[in-house]
Write a structure and sequence with these properties.
The complex is a heterodimer. Chain A is α/β, with parallel strands linked by helices. Chain A has helices at residues 25-34, 73-82, 87-98, 114-127, 136-139, 144-153, 168-181, 198-206, 269-282, 300-313, 324-327, 334-348; strands spanning 10-19, 103-108, 159-162, 187-194, 230-237, 248-256, 291-293, 320-321, 380-387, 391-398. Chain A is 32% helix and 16% strand. In chain A, strands 3-2-4-5-1-6-10-9-7-8 form a 10-stranded mixed sheet, with helices on both faces. In chain B, strands 1, 2, 3, 4, 5, 6, 7, 8 and 9 form a 9-stranded mixed sheet that branches. Classes of the chains: A alpha/beta, B alpha+beta. Chains A and B meet through α4, α6, β3, α7 and α8 of A and α4, α5, α6, β3 and α7 of B.
């Protein structure tokens, strides 16, 4: 039963995604239906161990000359997503309707343009100086790609980056909803963008969390995660008669585990709290949710905590699945990428599967579906993203 | 929401000469605010953030355990990130798991929630030259939408000199406990952030251009010294973000 929401919903009037599945949402949709892994050996740089990754291997566009100081792989991925389908013209329509100062931009990223910083450091160590085209504040810091998109689109509203590791862009959706609710913006472009880099590949490897083979979320034989990259863009707008047919972002629930920097609370207590908060803010009940997009990284501990959290909160859990076996874990982009996957599920009427899952782990006690279900059209979807620091976000989306 | 109330603030500036020139009380890193297990492996950024946040909570007489928090920083854990980037390009470079998870932008936020056993949401944001302004905006939006109180921490440790020559000094952190609307015990009332023509004070402009979180100085100055209702710039960047600051009306009426 719907109670009065604590926060007004916002319309999602456009969305796009570049990922290992392909260059746009159509490619992502086909991949979700096909459920075949897009993970392949890394091509972008060398690493001293075996793994597969979700790499974007199609050409990336050039950054325009007057914005060259922002040129990095992260900005190029974002630009590529912006240029897919009619997304750019949807943003331009919003600018024309509301005015550039009423259009905000919130980015979620974990490592920003650090792939390019790594290349600059290689030059620094050989030459003793950073290369002339290295611009720290335009490439490496967490707002860099936000500023790039703002200038590329000539937006004048608030612009910032959220960087809370793997929950970054899920939280960015919450920031955007509040910017509209508090009347600083009429529309906000939310971007979740992260690019492959040595730092995350070797960092997660040092934590012994990287799987050498394609990852198997929720499987009894899972052996860790695969890293992916991607750019997902979502245009959020104040609800109106014009966008009544578009899906709604109802709420983003947020919480902290207060447990450990790099391991989840074993019972998923923080995850329970984030999901509870999303439902509370939206005025919905657990029984209203009919699909859960799990965080499901395929790390031993994370999957267990995810599943226990779902079991704890949902006595009769709706079907659950996770898409990281298809795309890899896109880290700071994951919240936005998986919000897009969830929107496709809502709008096109299906449930994604869990690529890589063969034998369910009895220690992961929630109903995880391995294959996509084309016979179920969900109406209300919860999409989870949990990150380092015990930083949790749960995104609640509803079909129009 | 008509305004936010500043309930308490704290500032941390490790450079004693810089600290002495600040127009409000500021302190060196207070190691007692850092849990013993964290002291050796936490960065200057995290230690400054803890030091400032602890003073702000004490002044506001609020338990850190109950407050949602927003941590804002231009460069986050830049010293740790720099170390990792240097190791990554060496053929035999060593990547330590601890350094890796301590390189994320929400390192200070994460450790704060763990140290305080605080399960409230915590966020980490960055906005370049507008970092302090966007932090104030984010705090406003959270309080306007969700009510209650929160802890806002703005900090940046020193950046390695070769990353952005002429920028990234001096290290500084400030923290504020903020409440929705006018409340009893408020030190200062902060109005709705908006774009305007107010210019950043010339005295602090070049320092804030070097270290954008120093954009907090004019606001903290008024919090410490008091003053009439006035507009102040909250960003050294060209964006023009400003807020109206006024004495807290509830405190005034009770005098």
């Amino acid at each position: 039963m719907t109670k009065h929401p604590h926060l007004p919903p916002v319309a999602v009037t456009a969305y796009q995604c570049v990922s290992a599945a392909g260059d746009d949402v159509e490619a992502l949709y086909l991949s979700l239906i096909d459920n075949q892994s897009c993970l392949k050996p890394l091509r972008l740089f060398d690493i001293p161990f075996e793994t597969v990754v979700g790499e974007v291997t199609t050409p990336l566009p050039d950054i325009r000359t007057n914005l060259k100081e922002y040129d990095c792989r992260n900005a190029r991925l974002a630009l590529k997503a912006l240029n897919q389908g009619g997304f750019r013209s949807d943003v331009e329509r919003a600018i024309a309707k509301y005015g550039a100062s009423r259009v905000g931009l919130v980015l979620g990223t974990s490592t920003s343009g650090i792939y390019d910083s790594e290349n600059a450091y290689a030059r620094f160590l050989s030459d003793g100086v950073m290369p002339g085209d290295f611009h720290f504040l335009q490439i490496q810091t967490a707002q860099a790609t936000a500023e790039f998109l703002q200038r590329e689109l000539e937006l004048q509203g608030p612009c910032y980056g959220i960087s809370t590791a793997c929950s970054s862009s899920a939280k960015a959706l919450g920031v955007a909803q509040r910017l509209i609710a508090a009347d600083f913006c009429d529309t906000v472009l939310v971007a979740g963008v992260d690019s492959l880099c040595r730092l995350t590949l070797r960092g997660f490897h040092s934590l012994q969390l990287i799987s050498s083979e394609a990852c198997r979320p929720m499987d009894i034989n899972r052996r860790g995660i695969n890293i992916g990259e991607g750019a997902a863009l979502l245009l959020l707008e104040r609800p109106s008669a014009d966008n009544a047919a578009r899906p709604r972002l109802l709420a983003v629930g947020e919480s902290s585990d207060a447990h450990h920097m790099s391991a989840p609370h074993p019972e998923g207590a923080g995850a329970v709290l984030a999901m509870t908060q999303a439902l509370r803010l939206a005025g919905r009940e657990v029984g209203d949710v009919d699909y859960i997009n799990l965080h499901a990284t395929a790390s031993i501990l994370n999957d267990q905590a995810d599943a226990r959290a779902v079991k704890h909160l949902f006595p009769n859990s709706p079907p659950c699945s996770g898409v990281k076996g298809l795309l890899g874990h896109t880290l700071g982009a994951a919240g936005a990428v998986e919000a897009v996957a969830s929107l496709l599920a809502l709008e096109r009427g299906f449930l994604p599967g869990t690529c890589g899952l063969e034998q369910a782990d009895p220690n992961c006690p929630c109903p995880v579906i391995a294959s996509p279900r084309l016979d179920i059209a969900p109406k209300l979807v919860l999409s989870n993203a949990f990150g380092f620091g015990g930083n949790n976000a749960s995104v609640l989306l509803e079909v129009a | 929401m008509e305004c936010m109330s500043l309930l308490g603030f704290g500032a941390c500036a490790p450079d004693s000469e810089f600290r002495a020139g600040l127009p409000f009380p500021a302190f060196d890193i207070d190691r007692d605010t850092i849990p013993p297990l964290l002291r050796r492996r936490s960065s200057q950024a995290t230690q400054m953030a803890f030091s400032a946040a602890t003073v702000a909570c004490e002044q506001a007489q609020r338990s850190p355990k109950t407050l949602p928090s927003v941590f804002a920083s231009v460069a986050g854990e830049i010293q740790t990130t720099d170390l990792l980037c240097t190791e990554l390009v060496k053929p035999d470079g060593v990547i330590s798991p601890g350094a890796f998870h301590n390189s994320v932008q929400n390192t200070a936020a994460g450790y704060w929630s763990i140290a305080q056993q605080c399960i409230q949401p915590t966020s980490a944001l960055a906005a370049g030259g507008d970092t302090f302004a966007m932090a104030i905006l984010e705090a406003w939006c959270q309080l306007a939408c969700l009510g209650g109180e929160l802890l806002l921490v703005c900090y940046d440790e020193s950046w390695p000199k070769y990353l952005a020559p002429g920028q990234g000094e001096p290290a500084f952190a400030c923290a504020m406990v903020l409440a929705a609307d006018a409340v009893e015990g408020g030190v200062l009332s902060i109005g709705r952030p908006q774009l305007g023509a107010e210019t950043f004070p010339a005295d602090w402009e070049s320092l804030a251009a070097s270290m954008p979180v120093l954009a907090a100085i004019p606001l903290l100055n008024l919090a410490a010294q008091g003053g009439e209702t006035q507009n102040i710039a909250i960003s050294p960047a060209a964006s023009g973000w400003q807020v109206q600051i006024s004495p807290c009306s509830i405190m005034q009426s009770s005098l």
